[in-house]
């Protein structure tokens, strides 16, 4: 049975984020199983997404994704704080219908050098007039992941022009060794 992979960053562009279309079922266990035999997948995905984006320290420098297969939720992505990894697992585990959580979130190493690149990349990308509109959201949809001087752009933008511009601007960041562009375009 295939699951849906949900990426974060499209909060304002699309209400539910980017979802790969594949069938998923989530069975309810315990007392609630008598009232509801199956929780709709979209409900479980919305709940997981909601809980993750509501985490207090989730920021533009973190990237979270998840996959739902039955009652198992697999978390992935990169975060700057070890507590965010633990908090993500804790909040997802409490959701009704979630039987198991597999936490594959990678904690980025502490590095003042990477922190400088993160701030410079943020200023360069979101300071660009054509991309500035993305920065006015609670969690901007262009996530800037920096590990060992290498920038990875994650998230969703409105069009190919914005995708390419964000990439070009990230290439201008002083001290960055490379840039990988994983930005997707909203349908």
Question: Short summary of the structure?
Answer:
By secondary structure, the chain is of the alpha/beta class.
Descriptive key words:
single chain; alpha/beta; five-stranded mixed β-sheet; 5 helices; about 30% helix; disordered N terminus
Describe the protein:
By secondary structure, the protein is an alpha/beta fold. Helices cover 30% and strands 28% of the residues. It has five helices and eleven strands; from the N terminus they run E-E-E-H-E-H-E-E-H-E-H-E-E-H-E-E. The chain has helices spanning 32-35, 41-53, 82-93, 112-126, 160-171, and strands spanning 4-7, 18-19, 26-27, 38-39, 63-69, 72-79, 100-107, 142-147, 150-157, 178-181, 184-185. Strands 2-1-5-6-7 form a five-stranded mixed β-sheet, covered by helices on one side. Strands 8, 9, 10 and 11 form a four-stranded mixed β-sheet that branches. It has a two-stranded antiparallel sheet with strand order 3-4. Helix 3 (82-93) links the parallel strand 6 (72-79) and strand 7 (100-107). The longest helix is centred in the middle third of the chain and has 15 residues, at 112-126. The two termini are 25 Å apart. Mean pLDDT is 82; it is low at 1-39.
């Amino acid at each position: 049975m295939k699951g849906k992979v949900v990426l974060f960053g499209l909060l304002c562009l699309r209400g539910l984020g980017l979802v790969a279309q594949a069938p998923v079922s989530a069975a309810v266990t315990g007392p609630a199983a008598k009232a509801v035999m199956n929780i709709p997948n979209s409900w479980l995905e919305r709940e997981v997404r909601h809980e993750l984006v509501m985490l207090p320290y989730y920021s533009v420098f973190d990237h979270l994704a998840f996959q739902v297969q039955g009652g198992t939720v697999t978390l992935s992505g990169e975060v700057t704080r070890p507590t965010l990894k633990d908090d993500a697992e804790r909040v997802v585990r409490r959701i009704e219908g979630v039987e198991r959580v597999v936490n594959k979130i990678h904690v980025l190493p502490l590095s003042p050098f990477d922190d400088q690149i993160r701030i410079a990349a943020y200023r360069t990308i979101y300071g660009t007039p054509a991309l500035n509109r993305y920065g006015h959201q609670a969690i901007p949809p262009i996530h800037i992941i920096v590990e060992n001087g290498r920038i990875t752009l994650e998230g969703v933008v409105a069009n190919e022009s914005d995708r390419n511009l964000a990439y070009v601007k990230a290439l201008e960041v002083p001290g960055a060794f490379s840039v990988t562009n994983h930005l997707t375009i909203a349908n």
